[in-house]
From TrEMBL, chain A:
It comes from Collichthys lucidus (Big head croaker). InterPro entries: Haem_d1_sf, UTP4, WD40/YVTN_repeat-like_dom_sf, WD40_repeat_dom_sf, WD40_rpt. GO terms for molecular function: RNA binding. GO terms for biological process: maturation of SSU-rRNA from tricistronic rRNA transcript (SSU-rRNA, 5.8S rRNA, LSU-rRNA). This is U3 small nucleolar RNA-associated protein 4-like protein. Pfam families: WD40. Transmembrane segments: none annotated. One of its GO terms (cellular component) is t-UTP complex.
TrEMBL record, chain B:
Transmembrane segments: none annotated. It comes from Collichthys lucidus. Pfam families: NUC129 (PF08157). Residues 27-38 have a biased composition (Acidic residues). This is Nucleolar protein 7.
């Protein structure tokens, strides 16, 4: 059953972008994250840290600061503009020029009525937050140096601003600077360089905590304007600070990759007075930590090593449970690789270009685990650069390899590919229907005659493909009036069904022959991460962010018996404790009872004809089964056959000749191309 | 009037002296030197100062004119080039042209300076940085079974360094083989 020829692909040079800023919305439990290439991502912390939304970036528009105001998200960057995002249509709503030069910091007051931005020209500009836009109100007293960091006092009456060599406290009503706190420069050679106050926090008891480029965290008394305590924390810069919601704990992120916690506690048992004491040090990053968020129960950090790390604090969660485990999110929870099953082609999506590759061939045979000789090497056929300033949002390749499409926030492009012996020609389809605009997901039908594109309000646009032209057919809309974007699109092999999943956890199935909504899967509490339609039984298989799997019969419009059996027995504990969500579901034409799925660390074949694993049995039993004699194996097998040989998986697909394509991106290859880390002198190296 | 008389008197007296063919100074010590009044010297001084100022002004004006000519010449050639790119050019009276440049020039310059500031603070001199290879090789060097740096362990990495190391190795072996004979 389980012998496959595996095409092990490691030539996808995917490079994630560094994390520049983060902001947490405690009411909706969403984390907004801004990357160096300008992309903004939203993670749902209440749903297993699933990456719900990605707003692609734009050239020259990286965010330096992110800020939630209620449900609205604002960002400001070095291009001097403040942007508000439309989270339902995944694009910037509008931008406002601040006219102060590059913006370094942004913060909103407690009530959500004012937005303060710190600019290069030394002004702190106040913007009024209105219902549909923001409006410039006034400037605070202009200073001689640039404003690098900002923090409002919770009362909204004072603002602390970190600048070069000093911190200024402003009265928000009069706009005048009341105190000037001078920050010491570093020792030795760094004495001649100005010290930059990279981050600052203003607490309700008027304590100001600052982190600077000389590597110290300083505690100041904002009422008297004096220094209370200095904590030299690192030799390099302290780049980020974050205060817990109850103000009892502060985190400082350094260029070394460490996050240091300070807690407001009594230093010794018998003392009455509380003070800020350095308690824990977390080393979860190899490169600079540029952004930090202190939630009630966890430390969320991100930086130049591009990984988002969530470290739950062990004094706030139960120890040794799945809840207290460290989470590292290194890869997007989306497919960046498209595979043309019939043609053996792979399409790699980068932010600024697409690459089309033909996978190699091998004639040899061997034992399981052998490396077969390569007869024909994989070759790059096309490298297609995008048009416009916006980064590529989604891309698709038709199963026959004859059509290629990609979309950005401003354009949608469709190309016809023709293969003549060893030559390949690419022709752009010039006149696209005007309905094909601001499209989030693209998907070709299995016979390559139609292109499906998800648009605003969870609708799907269907266009017909014909030789060299493209005609609009119709738009499919759900009944529920959902406004959230569609993030998953799947067309069935027989061309009859189209399934969509949106970020408000709704899964809709459309009948393509009748051109209308067929059914809606009962709403589940978690967001779907992958969907697939079985080619013969027409069963819809959905994998959710909480690792549950459901199978829904489209013909009977109810869950299948197998799915009910699985729900009743429950999934194995180790399956539910996996770190990464399933990103693709596919089926085998040779074995209709098999469901293929994969996440970043494993790929799994679920055999519906075998019994489900019990809670006490071993889940990863492939190695033991191999060592058992033939008759024993059948007794001990269970439905979940998991292979953990290949990491980190970006794509696993089944080709028509029943070989498996596995696209891996080793983390080491990514790390070797990151910017320079700090030099730490270790003994004996 | 008095000045004129004195001036004339002075001139006439100086004229007398020079008319004589033999330029012998008067012998008598009793004769006082020529009386050059304060007024005269003041006039003389003012005149020479005015002359100097005039020449300076003239020279300045000359150089300004030259510079202006050069500039208009340059601008014209620049604008001729820009005319190809920007559609917003207008010819005004005389030799002047007005062109509307793209708005982003100044903002992108400021953005670039800001980015360079961060870059120099984090990665510039004095920042004590190392390479990714060194960071990843720490484990190899401190393990119980020590091995080489990651760039030599991994097959596809650092081909140039590997080739260099190979050459050095060959050279060293060659050197070791020669002395014994």
């Amino acid at each position: 059953m389980g012998e496959f020829k595996v095409h092990r692909v490691r030539f996808f040079d995917y490079m994630p972008s560094a994390i520049r800023a983060m902001a947490f919305n405690s009411r909706t439990e969403r984390l907004a994250l801004a990357r160096a290439d300008g992309a903004v991502e939203i993670f749902n912390f209440a749903d297993h840290y699933f990456q719900e939304k990605i707003i692609p970036g734009q050239d020259g528009r990286a965010a330096e600061a992110l800020c939630w105001v209620g449900q609205r998200l604002f960002s400001a960057g070095l291009n001097g503009e403040i942007t508000e995002y439309d989270l339902e249509n995944l694009k910037p709503k509008y931008t406002v020029e601040a006219y102060g030069g590059p913006i370094w910091a942004m913060s909103s007051n407690g009530e959500g009525t004012l937005l303060a931005v710190g600019c290069e020209d030394g002004t702190v500009k106040m913007f009024e937050i209105l219902s549909e836009r923001i409006q410039f109100q006034r400037n605070l007293e202009r200073q001689k140096g640039r404003i690098i960091s900002l923090s409002w006092h919770p009362s909204g009456k004072l603002i602390a601003a970190g600048m070069m060599d000093m911190i200024r406290i402003f009265d928000a009503e009069t706009g005048h600077s009341t105190y000037r706190l001078l920050v010491d420069r570093g020792f030795g050679p760094s004495r001649c360089k100005e010290v930059v106050v990279w981050s600052i926090a203003f607490l309700s008891d008027h304590t100001i905590i600052s982190g600077d480029s000389a590597g110290k965290v300083q505690i100041w008394d904002g009422l008297t304007g004096t220094l209370v305590r200095t904590h030299p924390v690192t030799k390099w810069d302290v780049m980020a600070l974050s205060v817990s919601p109850d103000e009892s704990s502060v985190l400082a992120g350094t260029s070394e990759g460490t996050v240091i916690q300070f807690q407001f506690i009594t230093a010794t048992m018998d003392q009455q007075d509380k003070e800020w004491v350095r308690t824990r040090t977390f080393k979860n990053h190899s490169h600079d930590v540029r952004a930090l968020v202190h939630t009630e129960t966890a430390v969320v950090s991100g930086g130049m090593d591009t990984q988002l790390v969530v470290r739950p604090l062990l004094d706030k969660v139960e120890k040794n449970t799945h809840e207290s485990a460290l989470h590292k999110i290194a890869f997007p929870h989306r497919n960046l690789v498209c595979c043309a099953k019939k043609a053996g082609l792979l399409l790699f999506q980068f932010s600024d270009h697409l690459e089309l590759w033909r996978i190699g061939e091998s004639d040899g045979h061997g034992k399981p685990g052998d490396s077969l000789p390569v007869k024909r090497k994989p070759e790059k056929l096309i490298q297609l650069k995008r048009t416009g300033e916006h980064h590529i949002c989604s891309s698709a390749l038709s199963p026959c390899g004859g059509w290629l499409a990609y979309s950005t926030l401003s354009v949608v492009r469709l190309y016809r590919l023709q293969y003549n012996d060893n030559d390949i020609s690419i022709t752009k389809v010039s006149k696209l229907p005007k309905e094909l605009r601001s499209v989030h997901q693209l998907c070709f039908s299995s016979d390559s005659s139609k292109l499906f594109a998800s648009s605003s309000h969870s609708s799907v646009i269907v266009v017909a493909l014909n030789q060299l032209e493209c005609k609009y057919l119709h738009t499919l809309r759900p009944k529920s009036g959902s406004v959230q974007p569609v993030h998953l699109l799947c067309a069935s092999e027989d061309g009859k069904w189209l399934a969509t999943a949106s970020t408000d956890c709704e899964v809709h199935v459309y009948n393509l022959c009748k051109q209308k909504l067929h059914c809606t899967v009962p709403v589940y509490s978690s967001c779907p991460t992958a969907i697939g339609i079985h080619p013969t039984t027409s069963n819809l298989v959905v994998a959710y962010a909480d690792h549950q799997i459901f199978e829904y019969s489209l013909i009977q419009r109810e869950y299948t018996d197998w799915s009910r059996k699985l729900m009743k027995q429950g999934l194995h504990r180790l399956w539910l404790e996996r770190d990464t969500p399933v990103t693709h579901i596919t089926f085998s034409s040779k074995n209709p009872a098999h469901i293929f799925m994969h996440d970043t660390f494993m790929f799994c074949i679920i055999d519906q004809s075998l019994p489900l694993p019990e809670a006490r049995t071993m889940l990863y039993n492939q190695m033991t089964l191999r060592s058992l004699p033939e008759h024993e194996r059948l007794r001990q097998s269970h439905a979940f056959k998991i292979c953990k040989t290949f990491k980190h998986l970006m794509c696993v697909r089944l080709l028509e000749d029943h070989s498996v394509v596995v696209v891996e991106r080793p983390l080491l290859d990514i790390m070797s191309q990151l910017p320079a880390p700090v030099r730490q002198k270790k003994f004996a190296t | 009037m008095a000045r004129r008389q004195r001036g004339e008197a002075a001139r006439s007296s100086s004229g007398k002296l020079t008319d004589e063919p033999s330029l012998t100074l008067p012998d008598s010590d009793d004769e006082a030197p020529e009386e050059v009044t304060f007024e005269d010297s003041k006039v003389e001084a003012l005149r020479s100062m005015k002359q100097a100022l005039d020449t300076a002004r003239r020279k300045q004006k000359q150089s300004e004119d030259e510079a202006a000519k050069e500039e208009t010449g340059e601008q014209k050639s620049k604008k001729k080039k820009k005319r190809g790119k920007a559609a917003h050019t207008r010819n005004l009276k005389g030799n002047y042209t007005v062109t509307m440049l793209k708005d982003q020039l100044s903002t992108s310059f400021q953005q670039q300076t800001a980015e360079e500031f961060i870059q120099s603070r984090l990665y510039g001199p004095g920042s004590c940085r190392t390479t990714s290879n060194e960071l990843l090789s720490l484990e190899n060097k401190r393990a119980i079974n020590k091995s080489a740096a990651v760039q030599f362990v991994k097959k596809e990495w650092a081909c140039k360094e590997k080739a260099k190391a190979e050459k050095l190795k060959k050279r060293w072996i060659h050197k070791q083989q020669i002395p014994p004979c």
